[in-house]
């Protein structure tokens, strides 16, 4: 059995790790960028070295782990895989293009899963000739550490596809929560408006960044405050999801905070850019 993963970024590489190391399946990583694939391969080797240092992997295990990977810039190399997980940027037009191509490239029985955090699975499925075999698998970041996969059923997703996806998720050592295909699903329907409201508290001058995070972290017993979490997720990602919720529900309670909008316009994306609600450039 072979799993295809589209996207050699942080999420795609993480998904590839659990598909390989936990289930012992062969994994093909596809990315249009040779540089992205090179970074992914370097990360895989570093991850394996860390596992060895922790005593969780032998040298033979490491070589077997790395041997089960193949990387390619050509989507057609997924023609023989048994299950596909797409993990590219959260843009419908990009995912649509990939799913149309996968529908032609892969065998008719292959399940096509998307790691989307907000885009409609039903809408993605509609661009294929196999809507019953399209499903959402929303992994959490960092994938090797976080235990949850949010599984999203499209309107036409079959029971067989759901069962196969739940079985694979379990084989990956993950716990699943199943959601219907409603914007935001479970996690982001609750989490991102919470972050957006924290941005409004800052925007309205009610409290400082540090006090907002301290109040929520210690007052609600969560591991990090909402603005620290937003920086970790990426402010651009948070804004994209708020835009989806606002557009789909047409409800003003999902209106993105103007401060969040301006931060993204300024290139303040959070940890990955060195600046978000906090300044990471000096750390």
Describe the protein.
- By secondary structure, the protein is of the alpha/beta class.
- 47% of the residues lie in helices and 14% in strands.
- The protein has eleven helices and eight strands.
- The chain has helices at 10-21, 34-53, 59-67, 92-105, 121-125, 159-171, 187-203, 209-220, 226-233, 235-249, 258-265; strands at 2-6, 26-30, 69-72, 83-86, 111-114, 134-139, 148-153, 175-180.
- Strand 4, helix 4 and strand 5 form a beta-alpha-beta unit.
- The longest helix is centred in the first third of the chain and has 20 residues, at 34-53.
- It is globular and about 55 Å long.
- The model has no long low-confidence stretch (mean pLDDT 96).
- Beta-strand segment tally: 8
Low-confidence stretches: none
How big a fraction of the residues is strand?
5-15%
General shape: globular
The main sheet comes to: 8 strands, mixed
**Alpha plus pi helix count:** 11
Please identify the structural class as seen in this structure.
alpha/beta
Helicity level: 40-55%
In angstroms, what is the radius of gyration?
19 Å
Order of helices and strands: EHEHHEEHEHEEHEHHHHH
Biggest sheet: strands side by side, in what order?
A: 3-2-1-4-5-6-7-8
The CA-CA distance between the termini, in Å, is 44 Å
Mean of all residue-level pLDDT scores: 96
């Amino acid at each position: 059995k072979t799993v295809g993963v589209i996207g050699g970024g942080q999420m795609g590489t993480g998904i590839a790790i659990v598909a390989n190391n936990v289930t012992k399946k062969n994994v093909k990583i596809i990315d249009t960028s040779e540089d992205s694939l090179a970074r992914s391969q370097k990360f895989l080797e570093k991850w394996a070295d860390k596992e060895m240092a922790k005593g969780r992997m032998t040298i033979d295990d490491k070589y077997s782990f790395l041997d089960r990977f193949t990387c390619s810039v050509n989507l057609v190399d997924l023609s023989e895989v048994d299950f596909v997980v797409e993990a590219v940027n959260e843009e419908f037009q990009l995912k649509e293009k990939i799913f149309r191509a996968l529908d032609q490239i892969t065998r008719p029985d292959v399940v096509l899963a998307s790691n989307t955090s907000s885009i409609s699975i039903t809408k993605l499925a509609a661009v294929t000739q196999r809507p019953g075999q399209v499903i959402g698998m929303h992994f959490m970041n960092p994938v090797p550490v976080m235990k949850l996969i949010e599984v999203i059923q499209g309107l036409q997703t079959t029971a067989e596809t759901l069962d196969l996806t739940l079985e694979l998720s379990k084989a990956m050592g993950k716990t699943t929560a199943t959601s219907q295909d409603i914007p935001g699903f479970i996690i982001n329907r609750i989490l991102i408006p919470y972050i957006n409201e924290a941005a409004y508290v800052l925007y309205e001058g009610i409290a400082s960044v540090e006090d907002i995070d301290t109040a929520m972290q210690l007052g609600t017993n969560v591991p990090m405050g909402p603005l620290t979490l937003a920086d970790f997720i990426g402010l651009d990602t948070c804004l994209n999801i708020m835009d989806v919720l606002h557009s789909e529900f047409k409800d003003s309670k999902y209106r993105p905070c103007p401060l969040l909008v301006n931060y993204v316009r300024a290139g303040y994306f959070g940890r990955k850019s060195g600046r978000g609600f906090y300044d990471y450039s000096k750390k």
